[in-house]
Amino acid sequence: MKNFADLTEREILAIAISAEEEDGRIYMSFAEDLAERYPDSAKLFEQMAEEEKGHRHMLLELYEERFGKNLPPIRRENVKGFLQRRPIWLTKNLSLDAIRREVGTMEFEAERFYAKAAEQAKDIGVRRLLGDLAEAEKGHEKVAAKLTDKILSPDVRHKEDETRRRVFVLQYVQPGLAGLMDGSVSTLAPLFAAAFATHQNFQTFLVGLAASIGAGISMGFAEALSDDGSLTGRGSPWLRGAVCGAMTTLGGLGHTMPYLVPDSWTNAFWIATAIASLVVFFELWAIAYIRARYMDTPFLQAVFQIVLGGIIVLGVGILIGAA
Q1: Dihedral of alpha carbons 308, 288, 209, 259, sign
Q2: Could you read off the pLDDT of 73-121 as tens digits, one per residue?
Q3: Which of 18, 130, 23, 25 shows the shortest CA–CA distance to 76?
Q4: For the chain, is the Cβ count within 10 Å smaller at the N or the C terminus?
Q5: Which residues pair with 56 in a beta bridge?
């Protein structure tokens, strides 16, 4: 993946063209989905899709004028720092407030992209167009407020996050949750394999401790190096890496600590394993709840992904250890 600072003007324009096309399709998908439930709001999204189409035409004309008709095969997913768009099939039947948050995040990112790109562009015409598009995308953020004022009740409005808070969730809650998921699930297999292979609590604790710290270091560096935060405003990469690494380690230590039960106790192994299994149960359900609460993941889907996946990993560890 390329750093944003390393992009040429040609690549910036090519990414902007493909991004406008993709966002236009997303808005049309929202419009189709809301047509029966909220026809007035659907019209707003149709208008936004038309505006995105207009932006794409302006960018394409400028690109062809400067670089010809051939567009380089680069998209925003090839550049560090872009927030990932939901696949179209995951935007179906979202509640209006979930769509509002999604739109706010999309337009906030688009505004930052054009503003940063305008700063980086050397050609006056390119810089002017990118600056104008940054202002246009900033205006789109007001659509979320329109949806709130027209349809959502004051009580619901009061409880909902603003766009900036949504980005804060993506800055810190998301990497923390990713770390907690990895730490809680990935350490299950080695921990319970060691437990059932040795039936020794302290030996099992050492394996779990090593797995938790190792996973925390790995996930921390992976998160820090994935996005420098200059484009998305997701904050310091090393702070996000520290959050992700710490939560990964914490997720693994949760079901490792019960194996500090002294081996000298009667039935020490089974006592520790029972406590560890109970901790795993609450960990997996807590992660499923957090995904549903903060990441707009349907609860049943979150349960299927986390709880079922964790149980499978746990079973694999036990089977390997008992072999």
Answers
A1: negative
A2: 888 888 877 766 666 666 666 777 777 777 877 888 888 889 888 988 8
A3: 18
A4: C
A5: none
| Residue that the structure tokens 């810190």 belong to | 172
Closest CA to 74 of 133, 17, 118: 17
Instruction: Summarize pLDDT for 232-257 with one digit per residue, the tens.
Output: 656 678 888 999 999 999 999 999 99
pLDDT at 306: 85
SS3 228: coil
- Burial status of residue 92 (CB atoms within 10 A of its CB: 0-12, 13-18, 19 or more): exposed
Which residues have C-beta within 8 Å of that of residue 270, sequence separation ≥ 6? none
Nearest to 168 by CA among 232, 112, 226, 106: 232
pTM of the model: 0.58
Report the distance separating Cα 45 and Cα 99, nearest Å: 11
Tokens of 320: 């390997």
CB 195 within 8 A of CB 321: yes
Per DSSP, what are the bridge partners of residue 2?
Answer: 79
What CA–CA distance (Å, rounded) separates 158 from 155? Answer: 5
Rg (CA), the chain: 24
DSSP character for 89?
Answer: G
What digits encode the pLDDT tens for the residues 120-178?
Answer: 888 888 899 899 888 887 776 555 555 555 554 455 444 444 555 666 676 778 888 88
Concatenated DSSP letters of 295-312: S---HHHHHIIIIIHHHH
Fill in the DSSP letter of residue 298.
Answer: -
Classify residue 270 by burial, with Cβ atoms within 10 Å: 0-12, 13-18, 19+: exposed
Q: Using CA atoms, how far apart are residues 181 and 185, in angstroms rounded to an integer?
A: 6
